[in-house]
Specification:
single chain, alpha/beta, Rossmann fold, Alpha-Beta Plaits, 2 domains, 4-stranded antiparallel sheet, 10 helices, elongated, binds adenosine-5'-diphosphate, binds magnesium ion
């Protein structure tokens, strides 16, 4: 079953120059149970897109269905089964962690409020901060509170907008672990935006890349790398004189870069050419060999520019 089905979404904002097109003909299908990533440079339209999918705002045209429910005709039915957490949470600042969660549980009309609040406090390890005011919390704890709030109504679909933005590496790792755990234990479908490629690579089964309001790629991370023909990379550091042109007759090499006793070779499958490549180096002293897979960072750079 599809958790999200969006077709032909357009969104405009007013701007001093007139009408600004922020999303252009965006269509997206997300399967139930997926962790789906929305990537793209700043200002690409990621937050706008997940605000539309979570019924916080409405598109100027297009259709959105969440678990088969028309989000434009029945936003309240959708609101009961989704929630959204932002990496820049802005909660009532003078309320404590507990009071904030109570406030949202009242807003959501939850029946078993104390149980729900205690559940999410436990899950997000917020007990030590139960009576701490929002404005006294660290960034990481604010983000955990934002996740806790988003789990209060036990959503089937969770939107996370830059969940680890601005965190120290250890807190970011902790939050990613929590996201993974929430996905695995509860089977919730997760849609997250990020511009940390490591995060996308670790968490997301599929990724849509959005640029200037348009989806320009949509696939699993490994598939994206294949589509981009980024290839695998081998870097050889050597000492002595080496004739780079001797490599040119090895088929399957996609690209060669050289300089300062270093050669970088890109090929679809390094293993299949490694023997031939190394034979060419028999007259020089090899100091180091490094083989690496392309990462999403390479995909991002290629797509964003
Ligand atoms: N409420 C708004 N009014 C006018 N322009 C907006 C508003 N929200 C976002 N924008 C503009 O829409 C574009 C997309 O923004 P956003 O969805 O926040 O991008 P992202 O999350 O990818 O950084 C940006 O150019 C931004 O300036
Ligand atoms: Mg954003």
């Amino acid at each position: 079953m599809l958790a999200v089905k969006a077709d032909g979404i357009y969104k405009y904002y007013k701007s001093p120059e007139g009408k600004k097109e922020v999303l252009k003909n965006v269509s997206i299908n997300i399967e139930q149970g997926e962790v789906f990533g929305i990537l793209g440079p700043n200002g690409a339209g990621k937050t706008t897109l997940i605000s539309l999918l979570s019924t916080l705002s409405i598109p100027d045209s297009g259709k959105v269905e969440i678990f088969g429910i028309d989000a434009l005709k029945e936003p309240n039915s959708v609101k009961c089964i989704v929630n959204i957490s932002s990496g820049n949470p802005n909660f009532p600042w003078s309320l404590t962690v507990y009071e904030n969660l109570k406030y949202f549980s009242l807003l959501y009309g939850l029946e078993n409020r104390e149980k729900s609040i205690n559940n999410v406090i436990g899950m997000l390890e917020l007990e030590p901060f139960r009576n701490t005011r929002f404005d006294s919390l660290s960034t990481g704890t604010k983000q955990r509170l934002s996740l806790a709030k988003a789990l209060l109504n036990e959503p089937r679909l969770l939107f996370l907008d830059e969940p680890t933005v601005g965190l120290d590496p250890d807190m970011a790792i902790k939050i990613r672990k929590l996201i993974k755990q929430i996905h695995e234990e509860k089977g919730i479908t997760i849609v997250l935006t990020t511009h940390y490629m490591k995060e996308a690579e670790q968490l997301c089964g599929r990724i849509a890349f959005i640029k200037k309001g348009e989806i320009i790629a949509n696939a699993a991370p490994a598939e994206l790398k294949r589509q981009m023909k980024l290839g695998e990379k081998i870097i050889i550091d050597y000492e002595g004189r080496f004739d780079i042109s001797s490599l040119k007759n090895i088929p399957q090499i996609l690209d060669i870069k050289s300089g300062n006793e270093r050669v970088m070779i890109i090929a679809e499958n390094i293993e299949s050419i490694l023997n031939d490549v190394l034979k060419k180096f028999c007259d020089v002293h090899i100091k180091n060999i490094e083989i690496s897979q392309p990462d999403l960072e390479d995909v991002f750079l290629q797509l964003a520019h």
